[in-house]
UniProtKB/TrEMBL annotation:
It holds the Pfam family DUF4118. Gene3D superfamilies: Backbone structure of the membrane domain of e. Coli histidine kinase receptor kdpd, Histidine kinase-like ATPase, C-terminal domain. Its EC number is 2.7.13.3. It is a multi-pass membrane protein. GO terms for biological process: phosphorelay signal transduction system. This is histidine kinase. It comes from the Bacteria. The keyword Signal does not apply. One of its GO terms (molecular function) is protein histidine kinase activity. It catalyses: ATP + protein L-histidine = ADP + protein N-phospho-L-histidine. PANTHER family: ETHYLENE RESPONSE SENSOR PROTEIN, TWO-COMPONENT SYSTEM SENSOR PROTEIN. It is found in: Membrane. It comes from Sphingobium limneticum.
Amino acid sequence: MQRGNERFVERLPLVLDRPLYAYVLTTIFCASALLLRIAADPLLPVGYPFVTFFPAVILASFLFGVRPGIFAGLLCGIISWYVFIPPHNGFAINPAVVVAMLFYSGVVVVDIALIHFMQRANFNLAVERERSRTLADNRELLFQELQHRVSNNLQVVAAMLSLQRRHVDHEVARRALDDASERLALVGRISRALYDPSGAGQDMHGFLTELTTDIMDASGRQDVALTVAVPVGLRLDPNITVPLALVVAESVSNAIEHGLPDRAGHIHVSLAQADGALALEVADDGHGLTPGGDGGQSLGLRIAHALAAQLGGRFALSAAPQGGAIARLDLPATIAC
């Protein structure tokens, strides 16, 4: 309702198909003011010849602009002078009449001028609002295009690494190129998913669910169940979400590769917030941490440690009480808020 009123005011003064209509309607306003003044005459004390004519002038100026407002001021002034200023039905001229007409003229001029300046300011405000909306749309379009290009470039680099892999015979080098290609592709997908020009942040439950589902699909493991637990409505800034998502990806991949390499199992991803601090856990029911194994020293987990340090938090991989392993990332409130 309020927005509808604002749009109506922004269109004032009304531009009718023919200017004559504005003057016809203004004449009707003046005639209505005359009839109302005649009807109210028994209730009014002596004087007040202009009391019902001021609203007609204001209404005409407000709806149709300066010229119909001036026309209404002249017409109402003549009618009130002729009908309601003694001697009635005549245009008497004396000091009292001159003072009354000067008073009326001054009020009418002030009313019309104020309405005119108000509408000019409102028009300029509407123009600036439209300009700001256009700039905001252009900014969103440019941001979306930049986000799209960055994601595409990362995907291209990942594809180039995959092609380069075909010309490498060394198995360790091939595996390193595969890992680099997968991580670049993952960063590209995360960047695309995090696109949000409003700056409101990403809903973490839906985002982590989609991310972990992509990781499971890419692994080809149909025998590993995965669940995600995130508080409803939790949103984080992209500066936090991107490294946090990479930590989740590395932890889930590590659980599949080292915790559940040869059997079915379950991976549970949880994100909790308490007093502003964030706690991320990726738990699996796999083989757990084995002495001498490389699960805790893999490149992916070294990356997770580096990302945690970048955020000012702490990453740790430990054995779960019921078997399996738990990867945990703790972020302080000063970073997570």
